[in-house]
Amino acid sequence: QVQLVESGGGLVQTGGSLRLSCAASGRTFSGGTMGWFRQAPGKERKFVAAITWNSGTGTYADSVKGRFTISRDTAKNTMYLQMNSLIPEDTAVYSCAFRGLFQVGYAYWGQGTRVTVSS
Question: What is the model's pLDDT at position 4?
């Protein structure tokens, strides 16, 4: 059974940094894509960033480009999201997810970790 566990959230001031981690287990992740999504209070969940597991190629939402960096450690089966220059609009619950090679959508989700950016 696939398990995704996020960590690293917390409270930070505007301009600060946090690094989120997503520890994955339960299957091989080779060939798939892992992503970060966030849901702000009262709003829909939105895409933040994704990374192809094999190549490490990352893609980003426009709102985080240049501030966030996605990466993964295949030996540890862990994905990271380095978040710099945080702003209050980044406040949300951040969740990681996995999509297999032939899957259309993300089939596996973590429980999320809360990030709060104070002004």
Answer: 97
CA 108/CA 119 separation, integer angstroms:
33
What value does the mean pLDDT of the chain take?
A: 96
Phi-psi region of 102 (alpha: psi -120 to 50; beta: other; left: phi over 0): alpha
Residue pair 74/66 in contact (Cβ under 8 Å)? The answer is: no
Checking if the pLDDT of 101 tops 90, the result is no
Query: In the prediction, which pLDDT does 70 show?
Result: 98
Q: Are 101 and 68 in contact (CB under 8 A)?
A: no
Q: Give the model's confidence band at 111: pLDDT under 50 very low, under 70 low, under 90 confident, else very high.
A: very high
- From 6, 7, 20, select the one nearest 90 (Cα to Cα): 20
Q: Spell out the residues 6+ positions from residue 36 whose beta carbon is closer than 8 angstroms to its own.
A: 20, 22, 48, 49, 50, 70, 79, 81, 94, 95, 96, 97
Residues in the chain: 119
Burial class (CB in 10 A: 0-12, 13-18, 19+), 59: middle
